[in-house]
Specification:
alpha/beta; Peroxisomal Thiolase, Chain A, domain 1; five-stranded mixed sheet; four-stranded mixed sheet; 25% strand; binds coenzyme A
Length: 325
């Protein structure tokens, strides 16, 4: 018995923001952004919320799998930009779609979040605790990026992707994941400081600080191009596959240059590394499921093909999963 992806779905905010739109208020250019990142535009939430996007992606994944909300046993939502710290996004989704039989909780593994959710749900299904799960990566990063910081805000976009997974003859073959907390501060969102009536100075708005994301881009770049190939090599060993056996490498979409470098380091042709970053930018946990959904719905994935998914991000977190589609 294995765990297979049985349906996928995705949802995007309506508003598309091009690089040219950003040129209007920041000292940057379409040319610089395209050349350094491969990004041309991104979707940005205006009326949508993390919950509304996630719920829409989940409904579509259920429809694709031919399942009803009440069939779902488990919902794991991966996000760094939930609408509320609590109740968690997964519980909000449960209520929104009417999955009253599901248990639900969130995980935060940043851009590796969807992959960690897939691995966690797979472990539950394989140990027999649940028969199926809805896993979702959903972000409205536009509310936590600093729109005055040209080195980071140009990278990110909003969106959600989901997959319904369940018991099958074949599917997930091997999983690999890791973390390096000592490098956590190369990509972080500012802390919530301790402040209460017993602290010196008491409780004041002044103490609230910035809640924006901050990043050392070059450090993250170096981490990604060394760690992702290593994770992929490790998962291939666990799966007992040769690298040439893999039909598609579905990677986190952080930067087109990162993906080109990883392809080169692995010695694999770029055609095996599908990309949609040009249209969406980096949507953190939503990148992998949105790309999977596009590949699935456009008929680019054939049942029986070998896929390696790989994500990396804040934490630092990283991992790879080998699956038979
Ligand atoms: N527009 C124009 N110029 C910009 C700019 C922008 N949006 N952002 C930075 N610059 C400038 C810098 O100020 C610097 O100018 P200087 O040479 O006069 O000092 C110059 O461009 C080069 O900056 P640098 O930081 O060296 O660029 P880079 O080639 O490293 O590219 C990133 C920057 C952020 C695109 C790249 O480091 C990256 O993608 N890193 C990974 C980030 C990531 O993926 N994060 C999420 C992980 S999940």
């Amino acid at each position: 018995m294995a765990t297979r992806i049985l349906g996928t779905g995705s949802a995007m905010p309506e508003r598309i923001v091009t690089n040219k739109d950003i040129e209007g208020f920041l000292d940057t250019s379409d040319e610089w952004i395209r050349e350094r990142t491969g990004i041309g535009s991104r979707h940005i939430a205006i009326t949508e919320t993390t919950t509304s996007l996630a719920a829409e992606a989940c409904r579509k994944a259920l429809e694709d799998a031919g399942k009803k909300p009440e069939d779902v046993d488990l919902i794991i939502a991966a996000t760094v930009s939930p609408d509320y710290t609590f109740p968690c996004l997964a519980c909000q989704i449960q209520a929104e779609i009417g999955a009253e039989n599901a248990t639900a909780y969130d995980i935060n593994a940043a851009c590796a979040g969807f992959l960690f959710a897939l691995n966690s749900a797979t472990a539950y299904i394989e140990c027999g605790m649940y028969k199926n799960a809805l896993i979702v990566g959903a972000e409205v990063l536009s509310k936590i990026v600093d729109w005055n910081d040209r080195t980071s805000c140009i990278l990110f976009g909003d969106g959600a992707g989901a997959a319904f997974i369940g018991e099958a003859e074949e599917g997930v073959v091997a999983m690999e994941q890791g973390a390096n907390g000592s490098k956590g501060m190369v990509l972080f969102r500012h802390e919530t400081p301790v402040q209460n009536p017993f602290c010196e100075g008491g409780q004041s708005a002044e103490h609230q600080g910035s809640s924006f994301l901050e990043m050392n881009g070059q450090e993250v770049f170096r981490f990604a191009v060394s760690q992702v190939p290593e994770s992929i090599q490790k998962v291939l060993v666990k799966a007992g596959w040769e690298i040439s056996d893999v039909d598609h490498f579905v990677l986190h979409q952080a930067n087109a240059r990162i993906i080109h470098t990883i392809a080169k380091r692995l010695g694999e042709p770029e055609e095996k590394f599908p990309m949609n970053i040009e249209r969406y930018g980096n949507m953190s946990s939503a990148c992998i499921p949105v790309l999977l959904d596009e590949l699935n719905k456009s008929g680019q994935l054939k049942r029986g093909e070998k896929l390696v998914l790989s994500g990396f991000g804040a934490g630092l977190t990283y991992g790879a999963t080998a699956i038979i589609w």
